[in-house]
Specification:
Structural class: alpha/beta
Largest sheet: 8 strands, parallel, barrel
Order of helices and strands: EEEHEHEEHEHHEEEHEHEHHEHEH
Number of strands: 14
Number of helices: 11
Length: about 350
């Protein structure tokens, strides 16, 4: 099982003082954090796409290009690219460029994203939400499979006998599908035989079991190679030396971000009991020391048959030094123990 880290590029916000960290500062921190991941031997890093003041990264591929020049081994991907509001041709060119810069280490995770700001920003109608995703995914996969493109759809002009340059170093760029709890998204990924990443960011992870089983069933029914099946989970995580101290220190940061997002979605105020349940054995949070994390990651592996675990580690933008500590615990104490246990 591969172990890595996902981020959304949250910027640090102090609502009492009005302080908002600049994207420049946060991006510089991300570069240092991913350099450490690479040095520690973590398998992959993913960065999300957002178009809001509370996130620093709107173009994952540009950040990945910068990271490709300061890392050597770690896979670099988006988490996610909002393909519904993107131009798949330009997106593929950009990721192919990063694949060249990184000597074949790039990945692309396609998804709808957590927010809808990109739709009006790029001139798309939310009424076309489902159709845009399906059509643009089809074009993206066509670009990845065929060197000469002949394609026609509803939302852009046809492509006739065109070749996309530069070509990637890899024969094909690995394309993952990110899903929440939507059954139709699971069915689509399985039917196409694409790797899938489940975002488990609430409740009891065991409740996702039927969706994992659905994916595996449809994947196999469509004749895809079982040896190539890739299944991952993305879960909110933060690590340190002492579980209770980490939790106490991280709760104000985590809850503030949950409340910022919740304010626009009509959620009730995030509470400490919710946080404590999330950290429990049946919860969705990995917040604490290495032993807790190893046990919970292995539990997820046993539940779902994972090939990848992604620790989403920057929710609420914890202090950079705390982030570096969390990455260090993950890379030195958690990932090696998980891999030994799985042998």
């Amino acid at each position: 099982m591969e172990l890595g880290i996902g981020m959304f590029g949250d910027v640090r916000i102090n609502e009492k003082t009005g302080y908002i960290q600049t994207p420049q500062q946060r991006m510089a921190e991300i570069i240092e954090e991913v350099k450490l991941m690479d040095e520690l031997g973590l398998d992959f890093f993913g960065i999300g796409e957002h178009h809001r003041q509370d996130y620093a990264v709107s173009s994952p591929e540009i950040v990945l290009a910068a990271l490709s020049t300061v890392t050597k081994n770690i896979k670099l991907g988006s988490a996610v690219s909002v393909i519904s509001s993107s131009d798949p041709v330009k997106l593929y060119q950009d990721f192919s460029t990063v694949d060249n810069l990184s000597n074949g280490r790039v990945e692309l995770m396609a998804g709808r994203g957590s927010f809808i700001e990109s739709f009006p920003l790029f001139g798309h109608d939310l009424n076309d939400y489902e159709n845009l995703f399906a059509e643009k995914l089809d074009l993206l996969l066509n670009l990845n499979t065929n060197e000469i493109i002949n394609w026609q759809g509803r939302f852009r002009a046809p492509i006739v006998n065109q070749t996309i340059y530069p070509r990637p170093v890899q024969n094909q760029i690995p394309i993952w599908i990110a899903v929440g709890g939507t059954k139709s998204s699971v069915v689509r990924a399985a039917t196409l035989g694409l790797p899938i990443m489940f975002a488990i960011i609430g409740g009891n992870p065991a409740n996702f079991g039927p969706l994992f089983e659905l994916y595996k069933m449809i994947y196999n029914e469509n004749g895809h190679d079982p040896e190539k099946m890739q299944i991952g989970v993305h879960m909110h995580s933060f690590f340190g030396d002492d579980t209770e101290q980490v939790a106490e220190h991280y709760f104000p940061t985590y809850s503030a971000q949950m409340n910022r997002i919740g304010a626009s979605r009509g959620w009730p105020k995030y509470t400490k009991p919710q946080f404590d349940y999330g950290r429990s054995n049946d919860g969705h949070l990995l917040v604490g020391d290495a032993n807790m994390a190893v046990d919970k990651i292995l539990k997820m592996h046993n539940l779902f048959g994972l090939t990848r675990f992604s620790a989403h580690m920057d929710v609420g933008a914890p202090n950079h030094l705390d982030m570096m500590k969390s990455i260090e615990v993950y890379g030195k104490d958690i990932a090696p123990k998980v891999k030994i246990a799985l042998k």
